[in-house]
Amino acid sequence: MPELPEVETVRRGLQPILEQRVLTRVEQRRPDLRIPFPDGFAARLEGHRVEALRRRAKYLLLDLDDDTVVIAHLGMSGRMVVRPKGSNAPLETHDHVVLHTDQGESVVYNDARRFGLMTLTDRKSESSHPLLRHLALDPTEPGFTGPHLADRLAGKRTPIKAALLDQTVVGGVGNIYASEALHRAGISPRRLAASVKGQRAERLAAAIRDVIAEAIEAGGSSLRDYVQADGELGYFQHRWRVYDREDQPCPTPGCHGLVKRIVQSNRSTFYCGFCQR
DNA sequence: ACGAGAACCTGTTTGC
DNA sequence: TGCAAACAGGTTCTCG
Prior knowledge:
By secondary structure, this protein is of the alpha+beta class. Helix content is 24%, strand content 24%. It has 6 helices and 12 strands. The longest helix has 21 residues, at 198-218. The chain is elongated. The structure holds a DNA duplex.
């Protein structure tokens, strides 16, 4: 569910709730998610002020005032739900972590499938942390250019669609935006990754940058992974051109193809066989 | 050493 | 209507 734009939407939504707030109490309601919580997880957060809420690719990073960094990932089904001050709504089945702030609001981490995670590192170890160390540049960063992308793809014998999902190639792109970017760039998802270079890599880098930027602007695609007290976000799903549109007409002007669905590395890919080469 | 597929886990949708 | 199978926005392990 959450790809880079959704995680960025969550970050922006949580920023005013968490930044500069003290975590007065933290509830950890089960021993593990995809990986175990570190020893003393909740206690190590309590009493500390959140200095910043950052994002790297699909990871959320909470900087605490003692140089602790909380690493969070939403997996497929993770959500962050804001509980307003004074709410006494009961916690739900998959509410795994609750961060209570000194302003009375709290943030609830809910993840039915538990493919997400929360763990700890510190500022100086962050860049060498196993989860973050090999992450590629993400498309919102200045160095994300055609030549850079071509360099990351060089020598890869896998289809370009699979390569785009590899977080050491592009940070933050997931299954929806991989299909969307390839359609915008007119590149077949089955094309050999290493053959995407030069002008073609330039087009793909631009398409990735554009689709990610537009999706962030629209507040992401998901209506589920993030719920702000004052309403719902996630309008980008109405702008999908190929994802989840099997058998519908290709939206490229003048193209009379139909959107096809294929399976690559066990994931659905949507594309037009006419205008994507 | 690389790449494809399975596995992780639960909920929802689809098809018989 | 009911039940089972297929499928879901991610990552990581195993196997060939």
